[in-house]
Amino acid sequence: MAAVQESTAGAEAASAVGGTEIPGDVRRCLEEVSLPAYAIDRFGIICWLNPAAMSLVGDARGRQQSSVVAPEQAREARESFTRKVLGNERSTDASVVLLDPNGERVQAEISSVPLREGGRIVGVFGVVAHRDPTPSPHPHPRLTPRQNQVLHMLARGRSTAQIANELQLSIETVRNHVRLMMRALDAHSRIEALAVAHREGILRSEPRGD
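-> structure tokens emitted (210 positions)
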């Protein structure tokens, strides 16, 4: 909570310098807004959740942020968090599979940014911009988490270069992941791999764009 208070105060001070101070109690608004919102400290520990977020993932305060993400996406979540804390990533809008208090999978669109205090990054703040009411597909048993991640990025129309840039991997590494993913799905092209993934329920029939 302190992190949210301090960052809110900092935002108000910065806005005041620009002549557009945010009026009122911003912290209370964050508590009452219907969109789930959260704050993670610089060690990756969830330090604040508003009531909407608690209803989505339970009271996860004190736990690692990756603990509320589906296992196959935990690595991706940690990497994105690290890039933000190091100042290498300003903001992201990502499709993420969360785990609710009962362990059920929930597809969500999350927007997150570095959390700053006095000019330095002290964590990450984010909101769940959208929740899909239909259950999230389960990962394919023969795909590694990274291959599953690349598959979903291809389904969202990402090119090899875009995937490499977003994941901070070399283009050749991404190509290797694609080749291994196609082999695991017994597909001979990317289009065929996506068709197999849709047929086997790995992907939604109408994947959302970012």
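Residues 2-17 form the longest helix (16 residues).
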